[in-house]
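Q: Hi! Curious about what tRNA(Ile)-lysidine synthase looks like structurally. Here's the sequence.
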Amino acid sequence: MAVGVSGGPHSLALALLAARFCAARGGDALALIVDHGLRAESAAEAAWTARTLAGRGIASEILTLGLPRGPALQERARAGRLAAMLARCGALGRPWLLLGQHRMDQAETVLFRALRGSGAAGLAGMAPWRAAEAAVILRPLLGLPPVALEALLRREGLSPLRDPSNTDPRFTRAVLRAALADPDGTGPRVAALARAAAAFARRRAQQEAAVAERLAGALHLAPEGWARLDAAALGRDAVAASALAALLRLLSGAEHAPASAAVRALLPRGQGTLHGVLWSGGVLCREPAACAPPVPAAPGAMWDGRWRLRATWRAPEAEEGLWLGALGGAGAAALPRAVRRGLPARVLAGLPALWRGGEAVSVPPLGLGWPVAADFAPSGGPLCAYK
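A: Let's find out. The predicted structure is below.
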């Protein structure tokens, strides 16, 4: 297993528990320590964490994030840390990534999402597990109050790091934490929020099952990242709206689904554009005009939140001047009919292509040109995926 460890009390406790769990089964736990670089002392803290873990026989790696400052700093930092750890899990072949969120974190998440107007799915809080591209993310401590984890560290004689941002009133979560006034995580407010999250999670699981059943009879999802949708089989009820929202998130490459009101307005029309996805003639695909600009084409490059490049070349000079971007309307029109696979022009225009000097040298989803592979791996994950 891999374990995300910040040096704080809860992730340190998780590292100890995970290491013992793995050792008892003939395996091992590797701690992934992310140096976010947001404070001057972050590098020293990462080094301290690695030394502390080594003293307990736990191997670790320090991953440097280098996150730029700007708005939504904490949210971007969380997303950046998770992405870095998942990438390392993929590189090392470790299929499990453990994170140390506990019951107090769950309560804060539910409260935070409620204030932002989240729907029932969001109010279920963090999932105890979810599948990402590189690993399954596990949060085994969600049912435990932080006071229990602190007690474990005291018994072990460990004094953890304390992140000052956890009490910084500039951050919404710190304000919510102070408002709950329950540092131990055992009070009635936290308990009520935890019960609410569990109830919404059960509702979410039921909704996921209903959505999956509905899509099974209405959807054909193509490997080139587009879909055929039978509007009559989809229906127009709440399950249909949830299914359509999940499909729009998937095909757009966005992390989140579009607003519920917008989805409900689109559903009875059976066509239109929303969330960067075009719905026309029973076909849903990425809107060509909404595709992201090209990115440098290196192995592992992610483009448009949907396609990850798997290059087969070995010489570094092969990457020079090579870009990954949309095939576009002109590129689609230039394709011989024999290689189009009967795909609509609007689908072809949104496919990824490798460009050099204004020439498309490869269209990976069609197996055309250079022998390069690209995987449809949308940022938001599978059709029913929650954070």
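A: A fun detail: Residues 37 and 373 are 34 Å apart (CA to CA).
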